[in-house]
Amino acid sequence: MSALAAPNEVVTRALLRQVHVPGLARPAALITLDNGFDHTKPNSFGPGGLTSLDEAITAALAADPAFVAVTGKPYVFCVGADITSLPQLADREQALEIGRLGHRVFARLKDSAVPTFAFVNGAAMGGGLELALHCHYRTLSGGASALALPEVSLGLIPGWGGTQLLPNLIGIPAATQVILQNPLMQNKMLKPKQAAELGIADVLLEPADFLERSLQWAAGVVRGEITVTRPEVDRDMWAGVLYFARQTLDQRLHGAVPAAYKALDLLETAKDADFAAGTAAEDEALADLIFSEELRSGLYAFDLVQRRAKRPAGAPDRGLARPVNKVGIVGAGLMASQLALLFARRLQVPVVLTDLDQGRVDKGVGYVHTQIEKAVSKGRMDKGTAARLYGLVSGSVDKAAFADADFVIEAVFEDLDVKKQVWAELEKIVSPEAVLATNTSSLSVTAMAAELEHPERVVGFHFFNPVAVLPLLEIVRGERTDDATLATAFAVGKQLKKSSVLVKDAPAFVVNRLLTRFLGTVFAAVDAGTPLDVANAALDPLGLPMRPLALLQLVGPAVAYHVGGTLHGAFPDRFAVSENLRRIAESGQPIVVDDEINADVARLLVVGDEPLTAEQVRRNALDALAQEVRLMLDEGVVAEAQDIDLCLILGAGWPFHLGGVTPYLDRTGASERVTGRRFLPPGVASLPA
């Protein structure tokens, strides 16, 4: 065990107590996992925690209990392995040992002659959920905040029995969803009701008296009064489901995420292999992945999302923030309507929309009401909450409705003169302290505020579409934005449950600037004569969430062309205006139809006679990104390379295995090839030198 010692491990203790349950002759053994901190620092397992659990199981069984149950501290069951200790492992043998230790300890619950229960009272992820799967029975709290096996998103596999137990419990289609599909979809979590419906839990209980009801339910099982029946797993479809899953991985990832393919192999093993052989295969896969570049990038990305995103670099003192008791939104289109719903739900304050005529205002408010109705019909919102939200969102054609607003955001047409006119009108109506926020995607916040009497209260507040899904908020400080305005913007962003990044007022800020440069290299290749399908597939080895043309269709060719024009005006040497992009934008036609390039759009293109290979397109794109990232850092657009990566992960959905982008540029040599140096030191998001 000394070889596995983790000096910085926050040990999760397994605290044992005997509980007398009515109707049982002998006490039950209740093991509570607790690392000594509140819910903001969840339970996790390192070697010390596993050893503590092992000792608790030994003591529990020695007391001859009626049953053994494992639960967690308030709000948290266990979120899995202590991944921060993985880079400290010295060699493959140590990696094998940590896998084997977890398997040995957890298997004691699976193999116990005494009934074992997991009382999943809160968040259960990774090894925490695998611990629960080893128990004979599982109760689940309806208040559990997160349930998942997210390892593949980090570059790992569920390494403590998950790939072997889950498919044999809930079937291969559902297991593939939990182990592969959900982690690769922005690390999607299961809600308690979903987990119960899949069969992960045997019973779903209310959170208020969860522990008492779990003990009563377990006693009923032990006494034979409650019989747990589970559907028989369909083994005939096993091979077909995995064949389809492999095809899907190939189409989406093109081999870019080794962990996903190893997980697929392990799911295949789970069909026929005995449990010992299956878990031994997990050990080998885990040991291989722990020393991969993809895992190091994944751990780096995880740290950005979990830590840096919660402590934005450069954010002013929160004490400077002003209260926001009413929000105004200029515009009532789709983006404005989405913002109205978000502000009302999160801030719980009145929100008023305005637009040029009553028809547009009614349409915007109607959109909000429709979304609320859908949430109620799907059981995602109770009627009381819905009634309150109905009352909070209103509309008006008169901007005088903003007179008492503390925070006004515009979501009008992306034209500097239009936005300046909006602010000039509003400044005469709102109080001098009201924050004026712009959702511009590329225009200068400084220029927008230049002619105002109080330019210091104008700030960029750039959301990403869809607003309800993407967590990034680029907060843009203009040249005269003051600290109180900025602090209020960050406070509002936190209330909206967005991850805010401070950005300098530079053309297109971070995400749009990088994506425009990226797409620009693809269209430069097309303009030169590269077939559209070749250019579109050139970036496949990165394993991005979508190909360039699908991304362009999502953003909108007209928007992309407009942003490209803004950047061309600022940096004409690096951002060209593509004639072919203009043609596509003006055509109004979809670029991709049923995952195929639209032949009608392809016929619009005018191309040269110097086509590039896919490898050349990919190299050009990576080189362009490396150059642009270095220039943005030199310009001080953000504080550090970590903020660039955080923006791409949260705002563009770039995957953890790339670490955002700078670790991948370092790994492939693009950063040194183009800029002469790495963005990050060796070992930060990669293996040590």
Could you characterize the architecture of this molecule?
The protein has 689 residues and is α/β, with parallel strands linked by helices. The chain has 3 domains: 13-291, 2-enoyl-CoA Hydratase, Chain A, domain 1; 318-506, NAD(P)-binding Rossmann-like Domain (Rossmann fold), CATH 3.40.50.720; 511-636, N-(1-d-carboxylethyl)-l-norvaline Dehydrogenase, domain 2 (Orthogonal Bundle), CATH 1.10.1040. The chain is built from 28 helices and 19 strands. Residues 1-5 have low confidence and may be disordered. InterPro entries: 3-OHacyl-CoA_DH_NAD-bd, 3HC_DH_C, 6-PGluconate_DH-like_C_sf, ClpP/crotonase-like_dom_sf, Enoyl-CoA_hydra/iso, FA_oxidation_alpha_subunit, NAD(P)-bd_dom_sf. Residues 326-505 form the 3-hydroxyacyl-CoA dehydrogenase NAD binding domain.
Strand content: 5-15%
- The CATH topology assignment of the largest domain is 2-enoyl-CoA Hydratase, Chain A, domain 1
Low-confidence stretches: 1-5
- Strand arrangement in the largest pleated sheet: 12-11-10-13-14-15-16-17
Radius of gyration: 27 Å
* Count of DSSP strands: 19
The CATH class of the largest domain turns out to be Alpha Beta
Distance between the termini: 28 Å
**Average of pLDDT:** 94
In short:
This protein is of the alpha/beta class and 689 residues long.
Main features:
3 domains, Rossmann fold, globular, disordered N terminus, eight-stranded mixed beta sheet, alpha/beta, 2-enoyl-CoA Hydratase, Chain A, domain 1, 28 helices, 689 residues, 47% helix
Write the layout of secondary structure elements.
Layout lengths: L12 E7 L8 E7 L12 H16 L5 E5 L3 E3 L13 H19 L5 E5 L2 E3 L1 H8 L2 E5 L5 E2 L2 H4 L7 H9 L1 H10 L10 H7 L4 E3 L4 H13 L15 H16 L4 H12 L5 H16 L2 H14 L20 E4 L3 H14 L3 E4 L3 H20 L5 H10 E4 L10 E4 L5 H12 L7 E4 L6 H5 L8 E5 L9 E6 L5 H13 L3 E6 L6 H18 L3 H6 L10 H8 L1 H14 L8 H9 L4 E2 L2 E2 L1 H4 L11 H22 L5 H12 L9 H6 L2 H6 L14
